[in-house]
Amino acid sequence: MKYSLGAIQYYWPKQTVEEFYQQAANSNADIIYLGETVCSKRRELREKDWLNVATELAKSGKQVVLSTMALLEAPSEVKILKKYCDNGDFLIEANDVGAIEICRANQVEFVCGQAINIYNSPAVKRMLGMGMQRWVTPVELGKEWLAELLGELESQNLRDKFEVEIQAYGNLPLAYSARCFTARSENKSKDDCQLCCIKYPQGRVTTSQEDKQLFVINGIQTMSGDCFNLINDLASMENIIDIIRISPQLENTFTIVDEFIDRVQKPCYQKLPANHSNGYWHQLAGFSTL
Amino acid sequence: MELLCPAGSLPAVKAALEHGADAIFIGMNDQTNARHFTGLNFNEKRILQAANLIKQQNKSLHIAINTFARPGQFQHWQRAVDTAMDIGANALIIADMAVLDYASEKYPNAEIHLSVQASATNKAAIDFYRNNFNVSRIVLPRVLSLPQVKQLSRQTDIELEVFAFGSLCIMAEGRCYLSSYLTGESPNTVGACSPAKFVDWKQTEQGLESRLNDVLIDRYQDNENAGYPTLCKGRFKVDNNTYHALEEPTSLNTIDLIPELAKANISAVKIEGRQRSPAYVAKVTQVWRQALDRFKQNPQQYYSDEQWNTELGALSEGSQTTLGAYHRSWQ
């Protein structure tokens, strides 16, 4: 099993991001994804800053992957995407099929991100033909779905042509909109958002009127209210998952990586904390726990 | 601009034809259909009847096969494509790469439209579907503003279709898992958002409550219109502020934008609502036919009737309409 850090989903100040990656360089994560995937207005780090961080991490022996935007609307956003795809050094995580088309045309390999709708083996097969070397599974797919899908590829001798990665810790990205919900929560329009996401380094919790935690709003992204946590499910990942992804948290990210590594080696069961769930892995509603 | 109308039953097909649809989109009554609701849609016998009715009047038939195939069950999606081609569909509306791959390989001359569920929002994504799957029309997601639609139209010569009227999906379609997060079922996996079997209504001392899989979506006072608990349209709390944190119950209505859509070279305007009644289809089709005819006769002088907006408003969620993401201030 390998361990990865997904791209930071929230809008953090530059210094916080740089400190995070300094620690990441010395962490037990094997693979590090980085870059802005949610909103093109978040520019605490520019392209050259991200590339600098990437270069530093690569020197420390990490595999670095540049993550790209999930919702691309403006030509300016596609232009920046092209620059990343043309970087020449680092692998790209495509979170929109537009990025796949650019990589395919350039004949460079890519990681297919969790925001891309791949639900079955013929689709994986097409992706392999285009240069996919790793598949991060869509959030709503559970172990039975994945096992059956991968079994179909196994029987075609294709399973060893790519790696399978799953987000195993952190709030899940569930939806992307034209509307900015964080700006809306402050009665601001998206065009005049004043980059208010930076005030919410873990997003804004949204509850039902009965105070059940439902969602976390994070700019144009809606995330799960619960932290997805598969720490009790590592044994059932055997023969399905090759890479475990931890989504960066404001605190304790590297301890969490270590806990996962530890639990893979010494499996045991511990009750999940409040507001943690694992439903999707068990083909249940995402917010439920088994 | 083609007027493309929805139908979930034969009476709805007839209503659309009688009131001036240029084209009608329908789907099978199974999991291949992103509007898979009990009692709606077409079995193999009915879909042939629908196709014959539509062909007799020289109108165009589009068949939506726009969910994502499950492992081990791909033959259902293949069969849906084969059936659609057998009955002479003019276009297939597809979202899944596996289904796109099958249809474009087996039927190289088929006209394939990219479903909104595939959510192509930019030129590179359009190129992806055109270059790899022979797609000739893109149904644009409801997340783009009008300037963005125009910009996209200037960058590509592929046909573009937009949603013109009906329920407003506020997320990039096909990339929203809110429904499965609360219920285990989503448009991508079962063809329904916030499925009816999870819905519960209860009158309480605090008002009428709507729930989805036991989660309180909204609570209505006596003077408020209660709407279907689509989970993105509930009233939730952020800190201590209770409001429609994601979106109000409202419908998209772009009848005032017809000249702008024409300027953007839009090939077809689509009416949402395969789950709605034949009466709804009749009324919306009639109003939009009048509007498109008025625009065609005199594009410079186009205006919408107050009466049209009143009639459309009455058919809308929460009796409200919006320009949605087309109008930047909504975003």
Question: Would you write up a description of this structure?
Answer:
- Chain A is of the alpha/beta class and 290 residues long.
- Chain A has eight helices and twelve strands.
- Chain A has helices at 14-25, 47-59, 75-85, 97-106, 121-130, 143-154, 181-185, 253-265; strands at 2-5, 31-34, 63-67, 91-94, 110-112, 132-136, 163-176, 204-207, 213-218, 221-229, 243-246, 276-277.
- In chain A, a hairpin with a 2-residue loop joins strand 9 (213-218) and strand 10 (221-229).
- In chain A, helix 3 crosses helix 4.
- The radius of gyration of chain A is 18 Å and the shape is globular.
- The model of chain A has no long low-confidence stretch (mean pLDDT 97).
- By secondary structure, chain B is an alpha/beta fold.
- Chain B folds into two domains: 2-168 and 250-330, Alpha-Beta Barrel (TIM Barrel); 178-243, no CATH class.
- Chain B has eleven helices and 15 strands.
- Chain B has helices at 10-18, 44-56, 74-86, 97-106, 123-133, 146-155, 178-183, 187-190, 258-263, 278-297, 306-314; strands at residues 2-6, 23-26, 60-65, 91-94, 112-114, 135-139, 159-167, 199-204, 207-212, 215-220, 236-238, 241-243, 251-253, 268-271, 321-322.
- The longest helix of chain B has 20 residues, at 278-297.
- The model of chain B has no long low-confidence stretch (mean pLDDT 94).
- Chains A and B meet through helix 3, helix 4, helix 5, helix 6 and strand 7 of A and helix 4, helix 5, helix 6, helix 7 and strand 10 of B.
CATH architecture of chain A: Alpha-Beta Barrel
What CATH calls the topology of the largest domain in chain B is TIM Barrel
Can you tell me the number of structural domains of chain B?
Answer: 2
The interface involving the most residues is between:
A-B, 73 and 70 residues
Strand count of chain B: 15
Q: What is the level 1 CATH name of the largest domain in chain B?
A: Alpha Beta
CATH fold assignment of chain A: TIM Barrel
Decide which structural class fits the backbone of chain B: alpha/beta
Low-pLDDT residue intervals, each spanning 5 or more residues of chain A: none
Indicate the mean pLDDT of chain B. 94
Biggest beta sheet summary of chain B: 8 strands, parallel, barrel
Count of alpha/pi helices of chain A: 8
CATH homologous superfamily grouping of the largest domain in chain B: Aldolase class I
CATH architectural designation of the largest domain in chain B: Alpha-Beta Barrel
The CATH superfamily of chain A appears as Aldolase class I
Number of domains of chain A: 1
Output the strand order for the largest sheet of chain A. 1-2-3-4-5-6-7-11
